Amino acid sequence: MTLNEIRESGLLELYVLDTLEGTELAQVEKALIDFPELKADINTIERALQSYAYASAISPSPGLKERILEEARKTPPPSSDNNPPGNNPKGGGGNGFFSVLIGLLSLLSAFFAYSWFSTNQEMQAMEERHLIENQICDSIQAASASQFALYQDLTNPNNAIIANSEHPKYTETEIYFYHNPVDRKNYLQLSSLPPIDNNTQSYQLWSIIGDDPPRPLDVFQSDEDVLQVQHIEGTQVYAITIEKKGGVQSPTLDDLIGTFTI
Q: Rounded to two decimals, what is the model's pTM?
């Protein structure tokens, strides 16, 4: 890996979090030897994580201070006689003091353990959010790239844009056929289609060449706006019909929506 690649890979952050193993750990350790300047990156990441940990630390519960003071008030005053603490006739103040001290230390240990656990959970949640955000960005970029490619195809100067020839049964149909014989691409722009029952019916495209029987092509539903369809060399007319869902092998001419003469 180059210096920039190791910096952009995210491995340094995982190295600081001590979550790397195997090959990735070996890559970072080798990079730290090959590129001593990465030590400054490591220090920067550590400081950033520490700052985040402090900023995200859980404040002590309001009752913690009161519990500590209550335990302190229960501690008997030191004995004024010469008896050793363990021989105090009233029960031994020394043993009580150490019990309270142990109790306080236990409370503090529990508090700091809880704070560390909460901070660690927050950091894991932050990593998960970062991963999800990256996935969303990748999806948006992929969708944008797809839309841009579609726009380029539809605006290609080699396109012949053909409006459908209306048929008496479907006079309000508005469909445009984009035919590109150079790139061998066809698109349908479905501005207005007659309604169908999407549970039982589909639209189907056909290729007509000479006196040959119509060749069945794409089957689609009414929820499409722009649809790339098959390009069949030598097609003289493309046609669209309404068929049973899933398509058929021979067109139903009574439900012919429109034709496009190439």
A: 0.49
